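Field reference: sequence -> structure
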Amino acid sequence: MLSFRAFFLCLALALPLAAQAKGEESLAALARGAGMPTIPGLHIVYLAPLGDPAAAPWKNIILHQSEGPPGSARGLAQQQAKNPLKRGVTLWVETDGTVYWATPETVITTHGDGANRNDNRYIDNSQTFHQVTRMNSLGIEFVGNYPDVRAPPTPAQFTTCLGLVRFLQERYGIPASRIYAHNWIDYKDARYCEGCALAERARAQDYRPSTTRTSSSVAR
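Structure field:
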C-alpha cells in the first residue's frame, strides 16, 4: 500500500501530465476548425479567415526575419492582403508578438529563393535543396530588426513563435523536423543568420502533432 507521501508525490507528477494532455487535445480541436479561432497565448488579427486545413499545401514552415522597423507588421500584412501574390508571407509577427494572418491559407505567397542552399552549413541540405520551396512551405515573417539586422527577435516574438508554430504544426500535420530558418535553405544576408534562433527554439520544443502528413520526401 502506498504511503501518504508516495501517494501525493504520484498525484503531483500526474496532474501536470494530465493538464498537458488536455491542452494538446484543445489545441488539436482548435487546429481543425475554420473561421477566426482564438488560440490561447496568441493574439492573432485575421485579415483572412481560415478554411479547411486539408486544402492547404503546407508540408514545411519557414521562419523569416524582416529588416522592417518595429511597428511595420500591420502595414506589411495589409499590403499582402491586398496583393497576396506580392513577395511576402502568409503570417507577419510584430515586435510585441501580435500575429497578422494576411492571406487565405490556400494562397501560395512569393517567399524564399527556391531552396538554393546546398552547402550543408546549417543542416543537411540533401533533403531541402530545391525541395523546401514556397509551393509547399508556409512563411512567417518576424519584423523589427532595423537598423541592425543582427538584432535578435524580441522576447514576445520568441514566445509567439513557439505557440504559433505548435498551432500550425497541428493544423497542417507538420513535424518539428520540417521547421526551417530561411538561412538554412537559402543563401541569404551574410551578416546574420535569418530565422535561425527562432527555428532552433521551435524545433527544440519537439511538438508532435496528432496527425502528420505522410510523403515520400520533404517536398512531396
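Note: The first helix runs from residue 4 to 31.
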